[in-house]
Amino acid sequence: MSPPINLENFFEGFGVRPETVAKIKEMGFTGQTFMLNLDELPSLLESIKQHCHLTLGEEWGIKGAAKKLHKGLCLLT
């Protein structure tokens, strides 16, 4: 089993504000949550939007980070 992914590192360079990352952590989400559930990403984003304001750039950043790491995992296997 791989070690947990630090959310700050997961979203680094994707335009997600530190306060948004903190709220996502508070909600119990992890890097693995976003990477392993690409099909459920829209519902994960909706859940996050119910608890904090996401800018459009942050939504795209979250999607981009999840897709990038998922793609990286697929290339490793």
Counting helices, strands and paired strands, the structural category is mainly alpha
Count of individual helical segments:
5
Largest pleated sheet? none
**Which geometry do the CA atoms define?**
globular
Structure description:
Helices cover 68% and strands 0% of the residues. With 77 residues, the protein is mainly α. It has one domain. It is globular, with a radius of gyration of 12 Å. It starts with 6 loop residues before the first helix and ends with a helix. The mean pLDDT is 84.
Q: Could you give a quick summary of the protein structure above?
A:
The protein has 77 residues and is mainly alpha-helical. The chain has one domain.
Keywords, separated by commas or semicolons:
5 helices; mainly alpha; single chain; globular; 77 residues
Topology:
Blueprint: H1 7-11, H2 18-26, H3 31-36, H4 41-51, H5 56-76
